[in-house]
Amino acid sequence: MTTTAPRRTSDAPAVTTTVVTRVRDRAAATPDGVAMRTKELGLWRETSWAEYWDEVQDVAHALLALGVGRGDRVAVQSENRREWLTADLGTVAIGGVTVGLYPTNPAAEVVHVLADSGATVLVAEDQEQVDKALEVTGRTPDLRHVVYVEPRGIRGRYTDPRLLSWSDFLARGREHRAAYPGLVDETMAQTRPGDLMTLIYTSGTTGLPKGAMLSVANVEATVGALTGAGGLLDPPAGPRDLSLSYLPLCHVAERIFTTWNNAATGIQVNFAESIDTVPANLREIQPTFFFAVPRIWEKLLATVQVKQAAASPLKGAIAGAGLKLAGEVGKTLAATGGRHTAGSRLRYALAWVLVVRALRERLGLRRVRWAGCGAAPVSIDVLQFFLGLGIPVYEVYGMTENTASATANRPGTWKLGSVGVAHDSVELRIDPATGEILTRGPATFQGYWNRPDATAEAIDGEGWLHTGDVGVLEDDGFLRVTDRMKDIMITAGGKNVAPSEIENALKVSPYVKEAVLIGDRRPYLTALIGIEPDTVSDWAQQQRIAFTTYRDLTEKKEVLDLVQGIVTDVNSRLATVEQVKAFRLLPKLLDHEDGELTATQKVRRAAMAERFSGLVESMYRGGGRG
Amino acid sequence: MTATEPRRAEAATGSTPGTGPTARSGGRRPRGRPAMYTTYAQDMALLNTRGKKVGLGALLVLAVLLPFVLQDDLLRLLATGCVLSIGAIGLNLVTGYAGQVSLGHAFFLGVGAYTASVVAGDPEDEEVWGLGITFLPVWLLAAGVVAAVLGLVVAPLASRLRGLYLAIVTLGLVFIGEHVFREWDSLTGGVGVGRQAAEPVLFGMDLSRRSESFSGDQQMYWLMLAMLLLFALVGRNIARSAMGRSFAAVRDRDIAAEITGVDVRRVKRRAFVVSSFYAGCAGALWYSILGFIDPSSFGLLLSVQFIAMVLIGGVATISGSIMGAFFIALLPRLTRELPAYLPFLSSSATDTPNVFQFETLLYGLLIVLFLIFEPRGLYGVWIRVRNYWKAWPFSY
Q1: C-alpha dihedral over B99, B103, B105, B111, to 10 degrees?
Q2: Given an 8 Å threshold on Cβ–Cβ distance, is B17 in contact with A181?
Q3: Contact between A44 and B395 using a beta-carbon 8 Å cutoff
Q4: Which of A293, A612, B164, B350 has the fewest CB atoms within 10 Å, measured from its CB?
Q5: Structural domain boundaries, residue A52
């Protein structure tokens, strides 16, 4: 142990700290420590720090062998897995720029990102992703190599000369490594804080994705703000903590919580098998550190509600009583800012015995030490429910353009419904004219790739980043985000309405999957509502309602009444002008490929209004239901 | 140690390419995550949860301490329960796991009992044969092996017959056995005379006789408990290894099993041999508790009692076999108490209705009721209770 510290400094003098040097140092300090686990044939196979670092070096050398130079772009399109991380870090090690692609991206978007970024190498997970990249070759002249990780369906069938399997890729790297040992150490030493590290294509609810340029310094600023002392949790995450990696790695949030957090704190990352197995994987892993988007929290809540309703009478009654107690605890804690009263402590103890212990175990949240929510607004009801279970979900706020570091709730300083206070390194203010949230700090991005016009719109002359969100900064430093600026509606009566709050109130119901509020320049508010197929079909079966397809289900009178009940309930808590006067059920599930959702499952309002214009107009023709 | 240190350091600093350690197969499991398997050994472990470990440990401690609490007559009953469990496990292997209905179990029990008593018998005796080897492991093994050999002889029947036909044929075996046992006086002593059973002698000490500190029943109980543990563990391992899985394959669909490469004849032969071995050992041990063998004991009723143990306990489960055996072993004791509550039942064998008739009736009734309402037996009841709590606070 004592010998590693001085050697590290003598080996690599004055090297800029990057995610890669952090991994190298971890591999030197704890070579046998668990860096990550992948589930293979039923077993969680671990990768040690030494193996991780070894593969990163192989990848780095392989990229050098393929002629990738400093500043060249390397694209990765894959589900979360070890190869994503090693491809990313191998690229950064040689001064390259990583470009992430969503595995769900349709071919058109893949081609756009590849062409726009000018990536020379693509690491594609499997045949599906390879097909997307090879579909249109004319527009991606820079793409010289496509490395595929899973050979199934590709090996022996595809003849494209650009294809290279992952194992051959690594073999080339090892050859190169034997021929030029120490070359990667040299390239790492040349990295400077201002160097571009990654391009993150923002999904963009309007227009084509734009590549946000993040530098080494941006990433280090975020890593410092979130993972160190005084970061997201105290004591900070460490090698004994576990996390589950399941959100797309090309999104800045998951990149922070998987790749960067792993390198910075040594937390053990466990890759979920797929998004569908997240509940089962959660139960197995029982993470201590869990970040989720609102959709996941809503779904966990819906699972609890549906299962409680379907439980046998005795269990249902006991679970109901326990959850009611937990709900009261949540309410008390929300009111007191997290301080237990004698009554809430007693209630929590009782609820713990009845329900909470078993429930948390089954949800996979038994050992959670820090739970976070971000990337979209969430309803207070959802957070309060988990608060009652003894899991404070800390909302964090940030966006790709400020490397996701703006504000965060932290243990000890949090307020339900706010997104917390600004990090120490971040300046925050509200534009007095528009109410827009502005941030400034070392994590503010370098600009959009090839889009100086868009960059100029985002960052003003004084270095303030215009987030596009409207919010309120309270006296005690807590920020409340109202909504996206362009989503704010002004009704025909001249009233400003923030749709996300009402939409989220609707989405608290387990039966509502999507809610899109409409009302800009309209006499009253209406909503397009998408029902959750799993829960509603269960409900329909219990009610003995026969149905065939999703569309058929949405046309049943009973289902309409069910949703009407939810809408009426939400309306009762709203001011008259904010009430939803009519709604229509969406006849189909929204989909990324059809352009209704972004890659991060956010609704594209413009596309929706256009696509379902018939439904929308019908709600303003002589009044609607209710 | 010294050799590995530099290699690790090199891999870590990256000065020598391609020397990183290979992927570990036996991973470390973080604490408190029972559903997270990092090796197949964890997945296959007999006691794969902490609940099972603690539960079985507590049960064993309780079982070992029982002789200090209970009266000798009850201990004798429990020792019998242990032995019957061994027999029931044997029957469950052939009938439950391998699906070969056997009504001939009583025959193999008899073979075991007589083999043991011949091996251990007094060579001076002029009425019946005896070899005079009283050392328990010898006669126990002999009883098992002779029964197994006879099982091997019978097995070809099973490879030709299935289901009901096999049941009828094994029924015939019981009648042949009963006839032979009655008539072969030099082996069995003949009807009404009988012969001494094998004495459980270990290292010069007859366990069934009172020693300095413990009574015979206490020692016999511990002996049988140890035997049960041994046989149950072997049975469980047979069931979960390739052999047990090929049994199940033959039971579920013999044609499909054959197509997947299972040699159906060999599997059936093995099932009969293993089952007969268990029955032989159980027979020998059982009569070493009773001390005396009457040749008319190995009739159809005994076979039916074992079928009842399997069905009531739980088909194709080892722990179910044990539960069923104890249930049947303790049932007479319970029915003896009945006349106190049901005045119309007589405790005398000469009156009608009496408890003995009621007992026989009860076997049949229990089999019928279990098959209708709880086909998975007592084990199924247990699983249901366990799942109820496992799914807490919901129903699924």
Answers
A1: -130
A2: yes
A3: no
A4: B350
A5: 4-191
Residues A60 and A41 sit within 8 Å (Cβ to Cβ): no
Could you tell me if A499 and A397 lie in one domain? no
Q: Are residues A153 and A121 in the same domain?
A: yes
- How far apart are alpha carbons A438 and A464 in whole angstroms? 6
Shortest Cα–Cα distance, A27 to chain B (Å): 5
CB contact under 8 Å between B11 and A355, yes or no, is no
User: Are residues A50 and B395, on separate chains, in Cβ contact within 8 Å?
Assistant: no
As a whole number of angstroms, the distance between CA A282 and CA A273 comes to 11
Lowest-confidence pick of A160-169, B321-330, B334-343, B371-380: B334-343
Domain boundary pick from A164, A191, A218 = A191
Kindly report the nearest CA distance between residue A78 and chain B, in angstroms: 22
Count of domains forming chain A: 3
Question: Do A35 and A183 sit in the same domain of this protein?
Answer: yes
Do residues A147 and A129 touch, judged by C-beta distance below 8 A?
A: no
Q: Do A466 and A575 fall into the same domain?
A: no
- Domain for residue A225, yes or no? no
Do A44 and B30 lie within an 8 Å CB cutoff? Answer: no
Give the residue on B whose Cα is nearest the Cα of A182.
B15
Does B27 contact A45 at a Cβ distance shorter than 8 Å?
Answer: yes
How does DSSP classify residue B354?
Answer: B
Cβ pairs A/B, distance under 8 A: 125
β pairing state of A580-585 and B205-206:
unpaired
Report residue A257 as tokens: 């919580």
| pLDDT over threshold 90, residue A465 | yes
Shortest alpha-carbon distance between residue B270 and chain A (Å): 32
pLDDT digit string, tens, across residues B263-313: 999 999 999 999 999 999 999 999 999 988 988 889 998 998 999 999 999
Domain assignment present for A586? yes
**Which residue from A259, A258, A89, A47 is spatially nearest to A173, judged by alpha carbons?**
A89
